[in-house]
Design brief:
- By secondary structure, the chain is an alpha+beta fold.
- It is 43% helix and 15% strand.
- It is built from 32 helices and 33 strands.
- Helix 17 links the parallel strand 26 and strand 27.
- The protein is elongated, with a radius of gyration of 37 Å.
- It starts with 22 loop residues before the first helix and ends with a helix.
- The relative contact order is 0.10.
């Protein structure tokens, strides 16, 4: 299995295939890697286990890296690296101790200028998207923090004042739900059995436990955040911000109280925002389980039921249709189109409800009714349908709620149905209609079912007096300021969605019927002697303190005695997290952090919460601080499994990043399934999924490989199909770094000290100039890609430099420059160039791979006067004109093309050893350059015994195969005595014919009428070069054929 890019370095002079540094090339490369990983996985499954009755000849010695590593470095101390480097890369050993040392040394803290302000007045600040304390982090969180920390480390190394602010979200609905499930599973008690105070104690215990777990995971991931500034949405300071926001918005008229339709989750017993409701699409009749019912019970969805209402004082009936038959118990009218001739005689008349003492008017409504659809008559249930709600307002209809909070029907549904569960009532209503003869039919009906994203329950529209945020003016300001250029949203697809959502925004219900969360700072003024009306907005006051609320209540009650009763509900979780960027910096107090670090620089998050969270931060931030809370939003993709499925605990494909870091066996993976709230049936399903996806468990990959892989996957798309074998491939890349650095260190004798600066001396060899040029190109491109948030291209750039240019070329090419036969000046120059490449190469890699780069960098000798304590606070490489050697790049590309051609010829003739090459160059400038690079060519071509440069083909020995690189450059490989002469002569004849065909084609093109006048000069020049190359090929192949024929005759 090979996860990284191809093993053969590309020919710089004659590139073939997609450029790996282009976006399309990088994507193709990523796709290739995924295919290779899948092939490797398939091959691994096909391996036949050895027979049990056949004992091995000898027991293999246990490798040192197989021994369990024990970290002996005291927490906060710098790791002792005086011992020799291990034989192989062990991520657990390498990653130990560094994080605690970084933290203790204060490297995560923002470095301010002499005036106590951020350097250059432009800090780089990223606020953590606060993970929920509901449970441990999953691989999607790892992606978030890999991208964010890479940006933070890069900017820190660029010398900017950086701040990465950690924090946690209380996650009201999710956390309360999981604690309630645990409580009931363990004790068969509900929260109501415990009471509010005791239950909240249980939730705080859960929060403390998972807070610690998440913190540990974040440290394992290398998140370089300032832990002294850690925030929590329910801390005292952030709670103060929540209360201030609610009170201020209420005072400004943005928050109001109203009895309106809300999304009600029966299972969680709370309201939901529209964003917390998923739409499950079904194409027709479907039987589904519903939470809260027996698992064996299934209910019918995806159908539309028609039945008839009787017209009062008449034998006439009017037929309507509904997808929710039970809601007919809340019907208060029947609507028809005013222009529908079929029903004009019924205008103003009444229909009689079959099960209730209720007269229902026949109303006309051109908005709600399409007379071409169905029967043209529509039942109106204002208290249980969004469209009917609007009809009810227009026609001043009664709003009759038939549903209790627990999903049973109330007294308004009539004695037959009172106390019945809603979907049992659905079945009962249809049967009763049939018994009365009023049932017409049931037909398939494609539809969307509203599903609670948290519980999976079917959401019910119900009437509730709640607190609402008037979002329209907030959204208008957000649109205006975004269009003015104050906010950049990446990728562009997310920006288009941003405007669409804001332009169609609806008011936001912020009340939640929970106990865990910020209790709403609103108080009902209960005036003695007056009838209670808790729906009326005017009877409520808000207050930052009970004293402030009391003073406001006096203005309502006058001299009458009163009491204050605080709203039992809590605020939507997104209300507090919507204040995140400024509340974590001390707002509403005017703190130094608020002045220095607000607004933030980048908000990096998943596109799936662009509206849940990001839009609300922008709307509230502009309203409360008159400042865009961040200047850029980067939306990363959603991680799916290797099969493209969404991560789900019930599928067994949710991955803990720590399991990827340290590895986990299959049995241990199975055991972790029991840590959650899955039912036994779901555990069995998840277990099978794990066996299929991870037959040998999850391999140990290490943090660096995981971070690098996640960044390399990030190409701006909407989804990432994560393949663990690809992550493991980047562990092999880490091993390559380890071995390359270890080998390179052998080139530095004891006591060797690099030059005081990295400035070239001017005496560097061609390959040294080439690698310095490539280093500079990589640094320039890497900075640009990170600026553009092109993480795929950024990782490709540094990967290609290390693997294909530094390891595969320069380290091999410098071997003869550092052996005993080399002059001291040559050796010293090569050592310094190697040191510069290792030093700067590790720095460029550090934002993605913090641990292995620190470990290797700390082992390098330091330049004189360099006291930089850690790679994370060293200077990041940027474009350096002193390393700009375009001529050297062009010349070495020719060398590179030459040695690749030798390799290709050797492969085509199946020759692996004792290669003898002759290089014919007819260019007076090219030939001496190639002559000087013969040691490099021999060093870089495996099995090469000799390489000779000549200027005339007559100097080529007989019996050579050949390949033309350019009109002036041809490579010959001695194959005499190693090949079938007749077969080679036949090959030459075929190649001559092909080359001649190519030449004839170009000649025909060049001889076309008007060629010189109509064809651009650059195209004509390219055609001429192609013709010269074809002609050189023909000539060379004829010489090779003649040579083979001469050998055969001798």
């Amino acid at each position: 299995m090979s996860a990284p890019p191809p093993t053969e370095p590309p020919a710089a002079a004659t590139p073939a295939g997609p450029d790996p540094n282009s976006k399309s090339g990088a994507k193709k490369e990523a796709k290739r890697l995924e295919l290779e990983a899948k092939k490797a996985a398939k091959a691994a499954k096909a391996v036949v286990a050895p027979k049990k009755d056949k004992a091995p000849a000898a027991e293999k010695a246990k490798k040192p890296e197989d021994e369990p590593f024990v970290n002996t470095t005291p927490s906060g101390d710098k790791k002792d690296l005086s011992q020799a480097m291990a034989d192989g890369y062990n991520p657990i050993a390498v990653e130990s101790a560094w994080y605690d040392w970084w933290h203790k040394e204060g490297f995560f803290k923002p470095v301010l200028g002499p005036d106590g302000k951020p350097k250059d007045g432009k800090p780089f600040v990223i606020p953590f998207p606060p993970p929920n304390v509901t449970g441990s982090l999953h691989i999607g969180h790892a992606l978030t923090f890999a991208l964010q920390d890479s940006m933070i480390r890069w900017n820190r190394m660029l010398g900017r004042t950086t701040l990465f602010i950690p924090g946690f979200d209380h996650a009201g609905i999710s956390t309360q739900s999981v604690v309630e499930k645990r409580l009931y599973s363990a004790t068969k008690q509900t929260r109501h059995d415990l009471g509010r105070e005791k239950f909240l104690e249980k939730v705080w215990e859960w929060k403390t436990d998972y807070h610690a777990r998440i913190t540990s995971q974040l440290k394992r991931l290398g998140a370089s955040c300032d832990w002294d500034r850690e925030a929590f949405t329910m801390s005292e300071s952030l709670s103060t911000a929540v209360v201030e926001t609610f009170c201020r918005l209420r005072e400004e008229g943005v928050i109001y109280r109203a009895n309106r339709l809300v999304n009600w989750c029966v299972q969680l017993n709370t309201t939901l925002s529209n964003l917390e409701v998923d739409q499950k699409k079904i194409e027709g009749r479907t039987l589904l389980n519903v939470p809260g019912y027996d698992i064996k019970e299934k209910f019918e969805f995806g159908v539309i039921t028609s039945f008839a209402y009787h017209i009062e004082n008449s034998d006439e009936k009017i037929v309507i249709a509904t997808t929710r038959p039970e809601t007919m118990l809340g019907d208060t009218a029947i609507a028809v189109h005013p222009d529908d001739a079929r029903y004009k005689h019924l205008h103003g008349k009444f229909a009689i409800h079959p099960f209730l003492d209720r007269r229902m008017p026949i109303i006309t409504d051109s908005i709600a009714v399409d007379m071409e659809f169905g029967t043209g008559a529509v039942k109106i249930t204002p208290a249980h349908d969004p469209n009917d709600y609007e009809v009810g307002l227009r026609h001043k209809l009664p709003f009759i709620n038939i549903l209790n909070d627990n999903g049973t029907l109330n007294e308004n549904a009539g004695p037959t149905y009172q106390g019945m569960k809603r979907f049992h009532a659905r079945v009962k209503v249809v049967q009763d209609l049939k018994d009365r003869g009023d049932y017409v039919d049931t037909k398939d009906n494609p539809m969307n079912i509203p599903i609670c994203a948290k519980s999976g329950d079917v959401v019910e529209p119900v009437m509730k007096p709640q607190w609402w945020v008037n979002c329209k003016p907030l959204a208008e300001e957000a649109i205006k300021r975004t269009q003015a250029g104050e906010l950049l949203i990446r990728p562009a697809a997310s920006e288009a969605e941003w405007y669409r959502w804001l332009e169609s925004i609806q008011d936001w219900c912020v009340s939640r019927q929970l106990w865990w969360g910020h209790r709403i700072p609103a108080y009902y003024v209960k005036i003695e002697g007056q009838t209670e009306d808790r729906i009326n907005d005017a009877n409520w006051v808000v207050g930052r303190t009970i004293e402030e609320a009391t003073e406001r209540a006096k203005a309502i009650a006058g001299d009458a005695p009163f009491t204050l009763e605080q709203d039992e509900d809590v605020l939507d979780t997104w209300f507090s997290s919507g204040l995140w960027p400024w509340s974590i910096n001390g707002w509403p107090q005017k703190t130094a952090d608020l002045e220095n670090f607000y607004p933030s620089s980048v908000l990096e998050t998943g596109w799936d919460i662009l509206f849940f969270w990001v839009a609300r931060m922008v709307m509230l931030g502009l309203r409360l601080t008159d400042t865009m809370p961040f200047s850029e939003v980067y939306c990363h993709a959603m991680i799916r499994d290797a099969h493209g499925r969404k991560m789900s605990k019930s599928l067994g494909n949710v991955i803990d990043p720590v399991d990827v870091i340290q590895g986990l066996g299959l049995e241990e993976l199975h055991l972790k399934l029991r840590d959650g709230n899955l039912a036994e049936k779901e555990i069995a399903k998840a277990t099978q999924g794990q066996k299929k996806d991870f037959p040998k468990g999850i391999p140990q990959c290490g943090t660096d490989a995981l971070r690098f892989a996640l960044c390399a996957y990030t190409s701006g798309g909407r989804d990432i199909n994560l393949e663990i074998l690809r992550v493991e491939g980047y562990r092999k890349f880490c091993n390559k770094l380890w071995n390359a650095t270890k080998f390179a260190m052998l080139k530095f004798e004891d006591g060797w000290v690099p030059e005081p600066t990295a400035k070239p001396t001017g005496k560097e060899s061609l390959v040294e100039k080439w690698i310095l040029h490539k280093l500079n190109v990589a640094a320039t491109e890497l900075n640009q890609h990170l600026t553009d948030r092109s993480f795929l291209l950024a990782t490709n750039t540094i990967y290609n430099f290390w693997l294909y240019e530094l390891c595969d070329v320069f380290i091999e090419a410098m071997k003869p420059m550092t052996d005993e036969s080399a002059s001291p000046e040559t050796r010293r120059s090569a050592q310094n160039t190697l040191y510069t490449c290792l030093d700067l190469g590790l720095r460029m890699l550090h934002p993605f791979m913090p641990f292995v780069t620190e470990e290797l960098w700390q082992r390098l000798p330091r330049r004189p006067q360099d006291s930089t304590p850690s790679i994370m606070v060293s200077s990041f490489p940027v474009n350096n004109p002193e390393y700009h050697y375009p001529d050297a790049e062009r010349e070495f590309d020719t060398v590179f093309a030459t040695l690749r051609t030798i390799r290709s010829l050797a492969a085509s003739y199946s020759i692996q050893t004792n290669l003898q090459a002759t290089i014919v160059s007819t260019s007076p400038n090219e030939a001496p350059m190639l002559e000087s690079q013969v040691p490099t060519i021999v060093a870089l071509v495996k099995g090469c015994k000799s390489a000779t440069v000549v200027s005339d083909a007559s100097q080529v020995p007989e019996g050579c195969g050949s390949a033309v690189i350019s009109p002036t450059l041809t490579v010959f490989l001695l194959v005499k005595g190693l090949v079938d002469l007749n077969a080679e002569i036949e090959k030459c004849e075929k190649k001559i014919a092909l080359a001649q065909m190519g030449a004839d084609k170009v000649k025909k093109l060049m001889s076309a009428p008007g060629y010189e006048q109509n064809i651009p000069e650059d195209v004509r020049a390219a055609n001429l070069k192609n013709l010269q190359t074809y002609e050189a090929q023909v000539l060379t192949l004829k010489q090779s054929k003649e040579s083979f024929e001469n050998i055969g005759r001798s």
